[in-house]
Amino acid sequence: LLAANMLMLLLISIGCANAFYSPSDGVVELTPTNFDRLVTQDDAVWVIEFFAPWCGHCQSLVPEYKKLAKALKGVIKVGSVDADAHKELGGQFGVRGFPTIKIFGANKRSPSDYNGQRTANAIAEAALAEAKKKVLAAFGGGSGSGGSSSGSGSKGDVIELTEDNFDKLVLNSDDIWLVEFFAPWCGHCKNLEPEWAKAAKELKGKVKLGALDATAHQGKAAEYNVRGYPTIKFFAAGSKRASDAQEYDGGRTASDIISWASDKHVANVPPPELLEITNELSFDNACEGKPLCVVAVLPHILDCNAKCRNKFLDTLRSLGDKFKQKQWGWAWAEGGQQLALEESLEVGGFGYPAMAVVNFKKMKFSVLKGSFSADGINEFLRDISYGRGQTAPVRGAKKPTIVSVDAWDGKDGQLPTEEDIDLSDFNMDDDVKDEL
């Protein structure tokens, strides 16, 4: 009996050690056994984290998630799923990484993905927005003032297309387009309407979303071989022909549409230019008006030859391309050339290469403390993009003074040549003695 009791206590202690949340935290533990009853069949809006106990980012989220549960208590329900132990439940909702946060609103079978900052405040704002959408729908307002399949004209951010304006707006523009061909009586089109409107709002300035009533404009629908509703076609950037239209093969939720279209947008965005800081103009071109500016300070050319420097520059360009959707600025300087810049961002003193990411609007910066390598910089920038990492105020709370220097010529450094000294004019008589 004693052995059985000890075994029970051991199992309980192991379970507690693996659990992120206790009942007092307000985070409901969800499993395949209780998920449908508590979430799917419930009218409440839920925020649910799919995690794995071994996941470091999941562990880092714990304090913020506890704070979220306490803040939303009585307003929105907060739950968690150990998707490592319950893989089938994670797979049901397309969970591929940890932590994954989903918001279950009006349509419990199709939750929206949360991809914002992993703070209690940011997650709460997204959850409350979903709750507001649910309330508006109950009053008959849907998720916004626009609709792609209403056929009543251009509303919200969805652009009404017709046979008269289609070629001008879509084919003869440089913009990326997603076009829905719908029928006003189509039930699937009506279900897509709020999702299409929400996606159009989120994608504004990146991808244009249009809608064409295929029953009113049958000629245009036939041109694009529309045989069912809704049919969605993708048109890439630049001038195009009808034959260039591609089939949309993504999901029908706003988050699916946004994710699919954003990938197309990013693929079309050119990588940022990596500028050498040689004067104030080059510095402004690299950083002014950008949400963040990535500044690298590389070793002196005598300490790191052309091959060495180009290797660093190639790494920076590759990462610039990877993070190009962020629209950050990218710049570099040779160590010791822009001392005011180094001092203001507290880099260089511990050696080169070094890096800092600066927000000149807020006059704050964060310094790379890890390895100056593709992996090390990637992890640093990824944390920055999620709002994590230590920041400090820019020294002097103003843009540093940039001095004018020569641009690198792409060659190895050369040591300065020593001047030959002509000794012919010197009297080398050994008899001459120095006088004290």
TrEMBL record:
<comment type="similarity">
    <text>Belongs to the protein disulfide isomerase family.</text>
</comment>
<keyword id="KW-0676">Redox-active center</keyword>
<feature type="compositionally biased region" description="Acidic residues">
    <location>
        <begin position="417"/>
        <end position="436"/>
    </location>
</feature>
<dbReference type="InterPro" id="IPR036249">
    <property type="entry name" value="Thioredoxin-like_sf"/>
</dbReference>
<dbReference type="InterPro" id="IPR005788">
    <property type="entry name" value="PDI_thioredoxin-like_dom"/>
</dbReference>
<keyword id="KW-0413">Isomerase</keyword>
<feature type="domain" description="Thioredoxin">
    <location>
        <begin position="130"/>
        <end position="267"/>
    </location>
</feature>
<feature type="region of interest" description="Disordered">
    <location>
        <begin position="408"/>
        <end position="436"/>
    </location>
</feature>
<dbReference type="GO" id="GO:0003756">
    <property type="term" value="F:protein disulfide isomerase activity"/>
</dbReference>
<keyword id="KW-1015">Disulfide bond</keyword>
<dbReference type="GO" id="GO:0034976">
    <property type="term" value="P:response to endoplasmic reticulum stress"/>
</dbReference>
<dbReference type="InterPro" id="IPR013766">
    <property type="entry name" value="Thioredoxin_domain"/>
</dbReference>
<keyword id="KW-0256">Endoplasmic reticulum</keyword>
<feature type="domain" description="Thioredoxin">
    <location>
        <begin position="9"/>
        <end position="128"/>
    </location>
</feature>
<protein>
    <recommendedName>
        <fullName>Protein disulfide-isomerase A6 homolog</fullName>
        <ecNumber>5.3.4.1</ecNumber>
    </recommendedName>
</protein>
<dbReference type="GO" id="GO:0015035">
    <property type="term" value="F:protein-disulfide reductase activity"/>
</dbReference>
<dbReference type="InterPro" id="IPR017937">
    <property type="entry name" value="Thioredoxin_CS"/>
</dbReference>
<feature type="signal peptide">
    <location>
        <begin position="1"/>
        <end position="19"/>
    </location>
</feature>
<keyword id="KW-0677">Repeat</keyword>
<keyword id="KW-0732">Signal</keyword>
<dbReference type="Pfam" id="PF00085">
    <property type="entry name" value="Thioredoxin"/>
</dbReference>
<dbReference type="GO" id="GO:0005788">
    <property type="term" value="C:endoplasmic reticulum lumen"/>
</dbReference>
